[in-house]
Amino acid sequence: MELRHLRYFVVLAEQRHFGRAAEILHMAQPPLSQQIKAMEEELQVTLFDRSVRPIELTPAGKTLLREARQILQQMSRAQAMTKRVGRGQEGSLVIGVTGSAAAEFLPPILEAFYERWPDVTLSLREMSSPAQLLALEKGEIHLGFVRPPILDDSLGIRLVHQEPFLVALPDSHSLAASPAVRLADLNGAALVIFDRDEAPGFRDLIMHLCQSAGFFPGRVQEAHQMVTILALVAARVGVALVPRSARHLTPERVVLRPILDDTPLIELYAAWPRDRHSVLIEELLAVIDEARITQAVDLDPTPV
């Protein structure tokens, strides 16, 4: 079994879909299926339950995922550290990040990175996902933390974080005291949401989620930033669907409640130009991988 096979397995385990995994790995789906099948034959175990959609890891597959992530992270770290020692490299990274990711996901990552690279200068720019993708293309930032979709084949991408949706309500709302909210119960309420230029994929996901759950807004109020969305909720303009990380930005007079409907997790990806991949980017990605291994991903939607 080669390291690239472990990489194939990890990507498939995260995506739970052969087609999406093949796209991320820039390979056709049949070779990916063959490689996974060969791994199962070599190990004499079944790694994925293919009878369900999306596919699920078997107990053996979950064990391999944990070990494979550790192996890949250690190899990545060894390569990055070797280059660092060999070059005596210092430098800087300019990073783009969405507001909600900056509030929750990024601080522990940056802390761990600074412990290893104290002489590196990190510059953070809060930007929308479309603005980050444009800045990556122009070379204005080295790496961005963006929401999907990411359609540029010149970018390397990696899933780095997932979190549930919460519903943001004015504290005077009739459902504010409820432990959780069903979206259909909000039918007819005004919806505060990102405008299309700011977060097209995120907006489309929210609108599809609302309609699928039977929540048809009486009107739509657009905003450019998460802080503005929450401020409008506090002003009783409407309600909003927000990432759980928005709890760090929530003003007074706004309450966050779990959603009873079956909702997808909100994904955050690291993105960087493939032709400008650097030791510092590799080390930052290694720190993120290590954090995902050592800290269980808490998907409990209950706000604190």
TrEMBL record:
SUPFAM superfamilies: Periplasmic binding protein-like II (SSF53850), Winged helix' DNA-binding domain (SSF46785). The keyword DNA-binding applies. PROSITE patterns: HTH_LYSR. The keyword Kinase does not apply. Transmembrane segments: none annotated. Gene3D superfamilies: Periplasmic binding protein-like II (3.40.190.10), Winged helix-like DNA-binding domain superfamily/Winged helix DNA-binding domain (1.10.10.10). It holds the Pfam family HTH_1. Residues 1-58 form the HTH lysR-type domain. Keywords: DNA-binding, Transcription, Transcription regulation. It comes from the Bacteria. Belongs to the LysR transcriptional regulatory family. This is LysR substrate-binding domain-containing protein. It comes from Bosea rubneri. The lineage of its organism: Bacteria, Pseudomonadati, Pseudomonadota, Alphaproteobacteria, Hyphomicrobiales.
